[in-house]
Structures are given as structure tokens and as C-alpha cells.
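> example.struct
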């Protein structure tokens, strides 16, 4: 069942001075099944963040449409868009985006607080999640008191606590050392095994190897995709790296 459908997505950034503008996305087409874990890879400047920003309703497309569960994102009225984002989507960023003067617990609960959920409902959602993520003992700590890996696990908890339709992650391992990266990817893989749909942008072939399919974008278009199928992780990393190599050779 198609869950996210991206149709002829085009994005042109125009400057106020009326110059020609930058075509960040030319014609992007792909669809994501419910429960898929997709990675998006491509060189710097290829349009990955632009794509993720449109999927997350933070930015709008110049042309084309994104359907989430058959709903065109452009049909969501301005007043409803922040609630939609908070309740239907979960975000994980490279630099965690935790609030420094909130404890981990308050950071994780923030989306539920903003949606005015009852306190006991929040506690019920919180406990199993933080135990699963191994941060139950850190709930009263502030972000600056914990490691990068722990911060990112808190961000994952914040993303999951609303039981979103989709998790959107932009370079989630970008600020982590290799051990914390591996730990985070194992967590995301586990979240995926539990049926969560995930779209992740990454530079890392190793991180991408945890997903079920990798999309490669270049010059604002998807030009290649790889399915993991029943490949062993190392074999999948190999084929992802080869695809990236071919792509960069193709440019010179
Ligand atoms: N807000 C913006 N205004 C103008 N140009 C932008 C903006 N954001 C991105 N771009 C341009 O769009 C292209 C794609 O950028 P981006 O989506 O950030 O790529 P990636 O995440 O793959 O590095 C780049 O040429 C970039 O300079
Ligand atoms: Mg980017």
C-alpha cells in the first residue's frame, strides 16, 4: 500500500532580486510503502534537505504534490499545519534540536504538552519508550549533562511519543561517533521492525545499510534505487558505496 506518494516535485528558490533562481528539485517521483525504511543519499547540494523540508510541511513545493496516506500536503490549511506536523510526523535532526533549559523528560513530552494531553496519558506513553531507548535513568538530566548518543536517543523518544505516521530524519548520525551511530541505527532499525515508516537522509553508506531501500538523488532527480532484499549488511554497504562511486565519477 502506497503511504507516501511524491509526484513531480519541483522546487525553485527565487531571490528577491528576480534572478533566475536555484532549481533544487527538478522532477522528483517516488513512493513509500507503509512500514518501509527509506534512505535518501546524494552529494551535498543535491536537494536532500529541500526534499525533507517539503515532506515535513516546513516548506512548500513550486510544482508537484506529496500525498501522505492519500492526503495532499498542500491541502492542509495554514492554521492546521503545525498541529499536523506535531501529531503526524516525527523529526530527528543532526544536531538533536533539544531545548537546553528543559530536562530530557520535558523535551520528550513537549509534543504531548503542546497537544494538551492529560498527564497520566503522557506518563503512560513515556515509560516504555524511554526504557526501550535506555534513557529512563536520565529523564531529569539536562541535554548538556548527557552524551551526544543519549541526546539523540531522547530526540528519537520525542519523535516517537506521538506515534507519528512517519519519522523524518536528516543526517541523524551526522554528529555522532561511530559507536553511537551504530547504536542509533540499531534503534531506528528496531523502530522500523515495529512497523514504523521512516525516511532518512544520510551521507553514510553504513547508516543507509540499515534501511530497506536507498534512493539516490542528483541534480534534483531520483536517478537510482537499491533494495536491501536479503543482503547481509556488509554486502549492502558495498553496493551502496559502489553506487555512490559511480555517481561521483559520472559527474567528472
Ligand atoms: N533557502 C534557500 N534559498 C536558496 N537556495 C537554497 C536554499 N536552500 C537550499 N538552496 C539551494 O538548493 C540546492 C539544494 O540544497 P539542499 O536541499 O540543502 O541540498 P542537500 O541537503 O542535498 O545538501 C543547493 O543548490 C542549495 O544551495
Ligand atoms: Mg542537507
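> example.seq
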Amino acid at each position: 500500500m502506497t503511504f507516501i506518494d511524491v509526484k513531480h516535485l519541483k522546487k525553485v528558490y527565487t531571490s528577491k532580486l528576480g534572478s533566475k533562481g536555484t532549481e533544487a528539485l527538478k522532477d522528483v517521483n517516488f513512493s513509500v510503502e507503509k512500514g518501509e525504511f527509506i534512505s535518501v543519499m546524494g552529494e551535498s547540494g543535491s536537494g536532500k534537505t529541500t526534499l525533507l523540508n517539503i515532506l515535513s510541511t516546513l516548506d512548500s513545493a513550486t510544482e508537484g504534490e506529496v500525498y501522505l496516506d492519500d492526503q495532499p500536503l498542500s491541502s492542509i490549511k495554514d492554521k492546521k499545519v503545525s498541529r499536523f506536523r506535531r501529531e503526524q510526523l516525527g523529526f530527528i535532526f543532526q544536531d538533536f534540536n533539544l531545548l537546553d533549559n528543559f530536562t530530557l523528560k520535558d523535551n520528550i513530552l513537549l509534543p504531548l504538552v503542546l497537544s494538551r494531553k492529560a498527564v497520566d496519558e503522557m506518563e503512560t506513553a513515556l515509560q516504555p519508550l524511554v526504557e526501550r531507548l535506555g534513557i529512563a535513568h536520565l529523564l531529569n538530566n539536562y541535554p548538556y549533562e548527557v552524551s551526544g548518543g543519549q541526546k539523540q536517543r531522547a530526540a528519537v523518544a520525542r519523535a516517537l511519543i506521538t506515534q507519528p505516521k512517519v519519522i523524518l530524519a536528516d543526517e541523524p548520525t551526522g554528529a555522532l561517533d561511530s559507536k553511537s551511530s551504530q547504536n542509533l541505527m540499531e534503534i531506528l532499525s528496531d523502530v522500523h521492525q515495529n512497523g514504523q515508516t521512516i525516511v532518512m537522509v544520510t551521507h553514510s553508506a553504513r547508516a543507509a545499510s540499515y534501511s530497506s531501500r536507498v534512493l539516490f538523488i542528483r541534480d534534483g532527480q531520483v536517478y537510482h534505487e537499491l533494495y536491501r532484499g536479503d543482503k547481509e549488511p556488509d554486502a549492502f554497504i558495498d553496493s551502496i558505496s559502489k553506487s555512490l562511486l559511480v555517481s561521483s565519477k559520472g559527474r567528472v
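> remarks
The chain has one domain: 2-97+165-248.
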